[in-house]
Every structure is written in C-alpha cells, then in structure tokens.
Design brief:
Blueprint (H helix, E strand, L loop, with lengths): L1 H15 L12 H6 L4 H15 L3 H19 L6 E2 L1 H10 L3 H20 L2 H8 L2 H23 L4 H18 L7 H16 L3 H6 L13 H34 L7 H14 L8 E2 L2 H9 L6 H17 L3 H4 L5 H16 L9 H16 L3 H16 L9
Antiparallel strand pairs: 1-2
Length: 399
C-alpha cells in the first residue's frame, strides 16, 4: 500500500510546491524531460493546421521553435509558446487558407498590443477574482483530459491502449522524481514503438533536407477577414487562459519572479506581429504549457529552449518528411503527457477548497468554459459577477 501511495503523494506535493530561488537557465535531465511536457498540445495542432491549410512546413516549425527560444531567454522560466487553440480548431475543421490565418495572426497581435498599451488588460487583471482564474484553469484541464482520453489514447486501437497504459504507469511512479524524470522514459517508449511498427531509418534519411522560412506580406483585407473569422472567437480564450491564467500559474510556481500582466501580453502581441511575415502560425502563451513543463520536471527556461530547438531542427532539416517523422511521437504517448498536464492544471484549484463560495465558482466556471460555445468568455463574465455578489451574502455562504 505504501508503494502505491508514494507516487500519488509526490504528484500532490509537486503541484503545490514552488521554486523559491531565482534560477538561471539550466540544461539537465529535468529540463530535457520538461521540454516534452507540452508536446501533447502543440504537435497535433501544428500538424493539423499544416495538413488542413497546406502551410509551408518549414516556416511553421522554424518560427514556432524560434519563438520558444526567444521566450525562454526573455522569461527565464518554462514559459512555453503554443498555437492559438481556437484559431487552430477553426482552421483544421473548416480548412481555411493560410492567407486568412496569417492575417488573423497580425490582427490579434495588433489587438493585444492595443489592450496592453491602453491599460485595459491591467484593469481586467484587477477585476477578475482568483476563483474565476482557477475555474478557467479547471475548465481547460477538463478539455485537455477529454482530448487525451477520447482521441489520443484510442488512436492505435488495442496497441494504443497498451502503449498508453505502460506510459501512464511509468509517469505515475516517476512523477516528481528529479533523478529519473518521467518524460525521458515515456518518450523513449514512444520512439521505440514508432520504429518497431511505423518508421524505419530509411524513411528518416529520405525525409532529410535543408529548408528555410518563406517570407509573406499579409494584406489588410486578410487581416480584416482573419479578425472576424478567427481572432474574435480566440480573444476570450486568450484573455482568460493565455494572459490571466498564465500570470496566475507563473505566480503559483515561481512567486519570486513577480511576473506582470503587461509583459505576458506584450510578448504575446510581438510574436503575432512577427510570425505572419515569415509564414508562422499565430501563437500565444498558456497556463497549460507551464503546468506541463513543470509537471515533467522543468524549473527554468532551459526546457523551452530545448523544445524550441527540437522544432527548429525538424523545420530546417526534416520538414520535407514531417508527416512521417511526427509518428516518432505516437498519439497514445502524447495522450499520457497531455493527461498529466491536465491533472496538474485541475489540481491547482485545491487552494480555494476552504471557501464554499469560491470553490463553487471554480467548478461552475470550469464546467461552463469546457462545455459551452464561447464558454471562456461566459465563464469569465458570469464567474466574476457571482464572485462579487457572493461577497454581499451572509458570511455562512463563504465558509
């Protein structure tokens, strides 16, 4: 009984502990393990957009990797870069063209810059209570867990279930272990599976070649169309998760850094003002990304540098065979990584379990965010309203 409780206790402690000392960027086994903590979110969305819209693979991968590296040195913590999720889903499902996607990236970059310089984001950060932010994190965790279990784990039928089960057990017993960080073993398991059943060395060699990003000039017409079609559905999710929830989780895990809301929104904006001109996909930061990197061992920006280098190398040298090379990361393995990222996010709400009112708001916002169209903006508005109303109720409600 004690042996089975130990990994659960380590996971529980890991999700509530903080890194007290301000550390320089490191490159060690834990940073390498943490570098794979967000791959379950990023890689399928990037591949989906490339295939659905016919994007230039090299440009997408190189720019995505470059933004990871720049962000790592800017923050010094595992502050990853992610594709804009709402945009990615719309592009994949509706097969929208690259020009509209690049225009949407430019549009949301300008929008976030305006919100930053006008101080509207600072006001929003002051108004929205912590219980609503925890609810947004909880809702995102539900969505990621659902994606991991329904789509990724079942991708390879019976073999996928077996692969996922082994990866889950490995992660469960090694989570929080600084000597043997779990992602290294889980990824090696996935690579071995891929080369046994899906890939061979000849395929990898045939995929090699040198590529560079393609220059692109977005038009104002594309920017306007992209704003209406893609940016507007994305903005509520970005405000709730990419900005507010990201600042909150950075404070949870790295309180000594005193990370401001303006810096997060400014780097978000700058990425999207640069990417469209080099055929890169719209990008953001995200609380789930930090949770994933942290859960699998990362404590500095070293993990984000390593992740960025991985995408850079894929883009520069293997973009011609990207559709085959990505099978090195089987979906059931990505599902296991994504599941623990989701659990890390959802368990953050425990710090509000002492207040009935706050905990109820967390659950309500999470369910709305994960289950309704435009759920993040509805949860943000309704949760904030209920939080302020609850303060006027009798004290018994707040206990």
């Amino acid at each position: 009984m004690r042996r089975t409780e130990a990994p659960l206790r380590r996971f529980k402690n890991m999700t509530t502990s903080v890194h007290i000392r301000r550390a320089a960027i490191r490159f060690d086994r834990n940073e390498l393990s943490g570098a794979f903590g967000d791959i379950g979110t990023d890689l399928p969305l990037i591949a989906g957009m490339i295939l659905a819209s016919g994007l230039d693979t090299a440009s997408v991968l190189i720019m995505f990797g470059a933004m990871q590296i720049l962000t790592a040195f800017s923050y010094g913590i595992p502050m990853p870069v992610q594709p804009l999720k709402a945009m990615a889903v719309l592009v994949i499902t509706q097969k929208l063209g690259g020009n509209i996607l690049y225009g949407a990236g430019l549009a949301i970059g300008i929008t976030m810059l305006l919100l930053t310089v006008t101080g509207l984001l600072d006001w929003l950060a002051r108004v929205v209570p912590k219980s609503v932010i925890r609810g947004i994190q909880f809702g995102l965790g539900i969505q990621l867990a659902s994606l991991a279990l329904k789509d990724y784990v079942r991708a390879d039928a019976a073999a996928g279930y077996g692969l996922a089960a082994i990866g889950f057990i490995l992660t469960l017993f090694l989570i929080g272990n600084r000597k043997y960080p779990p992602a290294l073993f889980v990824i090696l398991l996935g690579v071995a599976y891929a080369f046994l059943f899906k890939l061979d060395a000849i395929t990898v060699v045939q995929s090699a070649g040198l590529s560079l990003p393609r220059l692109h000039t977005p038009t104002w017409r594309d920017a306007l169309t992209g704003f209406v079609v893609l940016a507007l559905p994305q903005i509520p999710l970005s405000l709730g998760n990419s900005i507010l929830a990201t600042r909150q989780i950075a404070q949870d895990f790295f309180p000594e850094r005193s990370l401001g809301i303006r810096k997060i929104s400014l780097t978000y904006s700058l990425m999207n003002l640069i990417n469209p001109f080099f055929s890169g996909v719209p990008s953001c930061h995200g609380s789930g990304g930090i949770a994933g990197h942290y859960a699998f061992g990362a404590r500095t920006g070293g993990s984000t540098v390593i992740e960025g280098l991985m995408y850079l190398l894929l883009g520069v040298f293997f973009s011609r065979g990207f559709e085959k090379i990505i099978q090195v990361f089987p979906l059931p393995i990505l599902g296991v990584i994504l599941l623990f990222e989701a659990l890390t996010l959802m368990m953050l709400m425990r710090d509000l379990s002492g207040s009935r009112a706050d905990f109820s708001i967390v659950l309500l916002v999470g369910l709305i965010a994960s289950g309704l169209p435009y759920g993040y903006v509805l949860g943000l508005l309704l949760g904030t309203l209920l939080a302020y109303l609850s303060r006027k109720r009798p004290t018994g409600w707040a206990k």
